[in-house]
Amino acid sequence: MKHKLKPRQNYNTLVIHSTDDSFGFGYRKKNNIESDELFIKKFDNDLCNNLIIEFNKFISKENLQKVNKISVNIGPANFNASRLIVVLARTISQQINCPLDSFSSFKIIAKRIASKNNIFTNKESFWIYKKLKRNGFIAGKYEIYHDEEKKGDILIRETVLPKVIKELESKEPIFEANYQDEEDLIELLDLSNKNLFITNLNSWQKVLPLYPISPIN
Length: 217
Description:
Layout (H helix, E strand, L loop, with lengths): L12 E6 L3 E7 L8 E6 L4 H12 L2 H5 L3 E5 L5 H17 L4 E4 L1 H12 L8 E7 L5 E10 L7 E12 L8 E3 L4 H14 L23
Parallel strand pairs: 1-4, 4-5, 6-9
Antiparallel strand pairs: 1-2, 2-3, 6-7, 7-8
């Protein structure tokens, strides 16, 4: 079943995000960044219950029914948080008949890392990694490309989905993942609004947590 999209300027977007030690929500009305509403909170002892409580406080039933698109961060991040926010996003998507898509946490931070390190050349690649507590790394690869319609607008293509590797050896630049809650929520809202081709109401079925190692690692 296809979802008939409203004009881009009337699009309302909801995003759900988590990192290693926090979770958050973002809501953008009519693709207007000035309308952004953000919520960020550090984990507590009962994330399962408090995630729902805080979500219900964050968005009214009226605004939830106006959501045209949901996007969620699927990790790699805290295993339990990734699992819980994906379940929440899938449930809402199904209940309100709203398309759902997802982005890895490395994809969300990739543009910020590229900008901070002056990586602007078309098709230039770099890696983002997290060191595991035991041996090895989780790493993903990213490539710069430019929007032909909007000259100077830098976009990021994820060419290697974050995965476990034993050694970090590459000719391309390598950067350690670092999360900035507010900036990353805004970037997730931006990605969600740019990625409007997702129109399948059953898209929630394909969204799963990205966690390439066991929870004990």
